[in-house]
Write a structure and sequence with these properties.
With 124 residues, this protein is mainly beta. It has no helices and eleven strands. Strands 2, 4, 5, 6, 9, 10 and 11 form a seven-stranded mixed sheet that branches. A four-stranded antiparallel sheet has the order 1-3-8-7, with no helix packed on it.
Length: 124
């Protein structure tokens, strides 16, 4: 399996920026997609962005504000978040899909391993 560790969360004012990182270890050679999801209190987990072989995918709510990038040599994916809004407040979780690609990168049940998450809080 693959172990994922997120970092970079914190408290920021609206309009500010944060960069999240997710470091993978273990059977990283089997990774095909690395994704970010978020979950706010009382709400369902939602897709944020995904990285697969240099291709990027974004939820409409973050397009133009968030940028996902990957470093395949370091088995790390980053999420640069700009112009943050209070509604971006959530626990952000990194996830990875193993062995096979997918066109359903936005579905959490397509992912095999998850990190513990990192809290992002945006104050108004």
């Amino acid at each position: 399996q693959v172990r994922l560790v997120e970092s970079g969360g914190g408290l920021v004012q609206a309009g500010g920026s944060l960069t999240l990182s997710c470091a993978a270890s273990g059977r990283t050679g089997s990774m095909t997609v690395m994704g970010w999801f978020r979950q706010a209190p009382g709400k369902e987990r939602q897709f944020v962005a995904a990285w697969s072989g240099g291709r990027t995918y974004y939820a409409d709510s973050v397009k133009g504000r968030f940028t996902i990038s990957g470093d395949d040599a370091k088995n790390t994916v980053h999420l640069q978040m700009n112009n943050l809004k209070p509604e971006d407040t959530a626990v952000y979780l990194c996830a990875v899909r193993l062995f096979r690609g997918t066109i359903y990168y936005y579905r959490q049940d397509e992912y095999d391993s998850w990190g513990q998450g990192t809290q992002v809080t945006v104050s108004s």
